[in-house]
Amino acid sequence: MRENRTHGSEGGEVMSLPDPYRSGGSVSGEIFPFPTMSLRPPPNDAAHKSSLVLWYNSAPGQSGIGCPLRAGEPLRENRIMHFVIRGLFALSLVIVASAAQALCVDNVVLVHGNTGSPSDFNNTRNTLLARGYSSSQIFRPGWGSSCAACNDHKGSEETPVENALIDAIASSCTGRIDVIGHSMGATLAARVIDRVGMKNYVDSFVGIAGAFRGLRSCGTYPFNIWTSTCGSWGLSVNSPFLNGISGHRFGSRMTSIKSYYDEIVCSTGICTVGGVHSSSISGENATVTYAWGHYGLLWYTASKQADLIQ
């Protein structure tokens, strides 16, 4: 998540870039100081005896290039011109360095909800790309079947999410990741992180419209539980699954995004379980409340999601 930049450790201003003023071809990965300038005697030949040479030094021991100052030319104007050139060259190095240096941030895993799709996170993905992330730093696993009542938090539903988390950690330049889950994707991501023991690799965990305390529409376990989604590995209030992850950490920072207008979490007209909003994560560091519906919380909070992981 945090941006890391590498600076030269040698004395002075150091860049690891090719020097276009160095003679003899290109340079790959060498570290050298910015070019310096000095006045030297001209080369020992008749054609240059009436001039001084303003010399650009590429690096200690390197040849560099010379720019003659002819006799009779105003030295001050030439010096000003070459200081301008030197300044523009230094500025170009900074610009090239900024463009060449990849933004090192935590990889991000975006987990959609029950019967959703990776494209549900398009707004979030586009926001992250606009902030300098590359597409290779964003993981969007697809999981579950098209049967909303059939999916739960154990077995085949876990596999794509687990693979995405492992791949994101393995390729992260920081060694850590951020995870954002929507609806059942939030509790599914939490389940995988908890089971595999990944919490120390997760910097920020954001749960959007998750039912971490259960859905009243699913009933209270073990009574009147008719579907897998509401069963022992599902979202019924007091289910063994939800009780098993309650109070656990899913990252260094945990934030919930919730609404009292959520037509799924608040479908019975009551959003709370035990006096606490069901989308709140036990032990969370922060919570954010909006007046959006279940999918509005995902689609219209992309900037906030990005803020929470940066």
Descriptive report:
This protein is 25% helix and 21% strand. With 310 residues, it is an alpha/beta fold. The relative contact order is 0.11.
Properties at a glance:
21% strand, six-stranded parallel beta sheet, single chain, 310 residues, alpha/beta, globular, three-stranded antiparallel beta sheet
Task: Briefly say what this structure is.
This protein is of the alpha/beta class. The protein is 25% helix and 21% strand.
Question: Would you spell out the secondary-structure blueprint of this structure?
Answer:
Layout: E1 14-15, E2 32-33, E3 36-40, E4 51-57, E5 65-70, H1 75-100, E6 107-111, H2 122-130, E7 138-139, H3 158-171, E8 177-182, H4 184-196, E9 202-208, E10 215-220, E11 236-237, H5 240-245, E12 253-259, E13 272-273, E14 276-277, E15 286-290, H6 296-299, H7 302-308
Structural class: alpha/beta
Can you list the strand order of the major beta sheet? 7-6-8-9-12-15
The major sheet is characterized as: 6 strands, parallel
Give the beta-strand count.
15
Distance between the termini: 5 Å
> Helices and strands, in N-to-C order?
EEEEEHEHEHEHEEEHEEEEHH
The number of distinct helices, counting runs of at least 4 residues, comes to 7
Strand content: 15-25%
- What is the helical fraction, as a range of percent? 25-40%
What is the CA-based Rg, rounded?
A: 30 Å
Low-confidence stretches: 1-42, 45-73, 94-100
Arithmetic mean of pLDDT: 80
- How does the overall form come out from the CA principal axes? globular
